[in-house]
From TrEMBL:
It is an enzyme of class 1 (oxidoreductase). Pathway: Purine metabolism; urate degradation; (S)-allantoin from urate: step 1/3. One of its GO terms (biological process) is purine nucleobase catabolic process. It comes from Capitella teleta. Its main location: other. PANTHER family: URICASE. This is Uricase. Urate binds at residues 60-61, 162, 179, 227-228, 254. Belongs to the uricase family.
Amino acid sequence: MSSEDIQIVDRQYGKNYVRLLHVKRHGALHDIRELEVDTKLCLDDVRDFTHGDNSKVIATDTQKNTVYILAKQHGVKTIEEFGTLLTAHFLKTYSWVLRARVYIEEKPWSRINADGRSHNHAFVEGGLGTFFCSVEQHRNEPPKITSGLKDLKVMKTTQSAFENFHKDAYRCLPDMKDRVFCTIVYAKWNYGSTQGLDFGRAREAVRKAVLDEFSGPADVGVYSPSVQKTIFDTQKRALAIVPQISEMSIELPNVHAYEYDLSKFPALNLKNGGEVFQPTDKPSGNIQATVQRKVSSKL
């Protein structure tokens, strides 16, 4: 087949999994950010693909070096701001770059508590999920920023049900008036405006909305009639708290925990009492929804 019979309709290239640890020192007090960065560039012609002409190619190693150099020159305040800094740099520095994309994940480090006090320079990894963001910017256009939260595993042992769903010849699942509800939260959201936005506070507010809507008050909790309803209520809460969010998607897989059938051991005279469960995640239900703010019509 001749090269004239086909055309490249999209292309990009870049560096994945660039790991960066940035330490900001305020005297004895240190702050850390550990990131994993992906960069992708799209050039203004396709000769690198069609003719093997590398004259405009900004090597993926150069892209990797840029991550470290900009971190040294500007620091890392939030992943969204650092991602925007990277896309702007690639477009400003290289006039033949048409589009820059950056994806960043931030490792969940927190300060070690020592004798009731937060440690100045010692940290422990792990916590309430992983924040991520993607930034895409085209030449002569503003950046499009998406923030997100993933790997946030939550569970509650009551105040969850799934009843009155469709009955037909294929159904064997009984109504569940009270069940263990366990899931791994994946959420991402777009901003209608980022002017004056504190990205750090915004994402913490979203995470709090997710946890509050899932758990409810500490003493009584909150009832969930379905995963679908929990997703929608979470989205309503998040958009109410962060007015700059224009669109939000949430995905919640069911991490099932089935009560183990102790009736199989009659000689032991054991009774099921909602205490012993067998967790399983495959197969699992997977529920997703995306919401947007309604645009008010103007007459």
